[in-house]
Design brief:
Distance between the termini: 43 Å
Largest sheet: 5 strands, antiparallel
Order of helices and strands: EEEEEEEHHHHEH
Number of helices: 5
Structural class: alpha+beta
Helix content: 25-40%
Shape: globular
Number of domains: 1
Length: about 200
């Protein structure tokens, strides 16, 4: 992914973004994504929202766009530095959002969501390295070609299931189980069965 957001999170009651380092008995050790790298412990009581599990509503009620993809769109059009901030004029922010996501849901994505999106992007683009996507090439195997399809089907169901679990408002929502598609227990079981079959043939 262009920006690796797997370990980056927004934490309730704490301003800014944080990198999750490791869990502790009391919560999780975090590092502020502000250039200073200040470390602290987020209590288990704090709500931790991983950015790569967050999506934004579109006009298609059952479809959302992952935040990682939205960040990539912003980078493609504006680069790492935005002329906007979360304090910019509402009209400019609305115009920016429509340019990045023409199909975003105007009823369920609030101005507070757009401001949060801009604020998060400005933080991430300053402190994380942008990696050009290298997955546009043809899959090397048939299995690699099939995995994205399975992922999309599961993601669609999960988006629908979590549509009422807003992070702070109705515009930006978590897709909490989206990353589990690649590590499906069913896929693991099939792999073990295939290995056993191979051993028997060899014998």
């Amino acid at each position: 992914m262009p920006y690796d957001l797997k370990e980056v999170a927004a934490i309730s009651g704490m301003p800014g973004l944080y990198r999750l380092l490791k869990p502790t008995r009391a919560g999780v050790i975090i590092e502020a994504l502000d250039g200073k790298g200040t470390r602290s412990v987020a209590s288990a009581r704090n709500k931790v929202s991983l950015l790569h599990e967050i999506s934004i509503y579109t006009q298609d009620y059952d479809q959302t766009v992952p935040l990682t993809e939205v960040f990539d769109r912003i980078h493609q059009k504006h680069g790492a530095e935005l002329s906007l901030t979360h304090k910019s004029d509402d009209r400019d922010l609305t115009s920016f959002m429509a340019d990045i996501m023409p199909d975003y849901d105007r009823d369920r994505v609030y101005m507070s969501d757009i401001k949060k999106l801009v604020q998060w992007y400005n933080t991430v683009s300053k402190h994380l390295e942008y990696q050009a996507p290298a997955e546009d090439e043809a899959p090397a195997t048939e299995e690699a070609a099939e995995q994205p399809k399975a992922g999309k089907k599961k993601a669609a169901k999960q988006d629908e299931a979590t549509a009422d679990e807003a992070l702070s408002t109705a515009g930006i929502i978590p897709a909490a189980e989206e990353t589990n598609a690649a590590g499906s227990p069913e896929a693991a079981t099939e792999a073990k069965t295939a290995k056993k079959a191979t051993k028997k043939k060899a014998e």
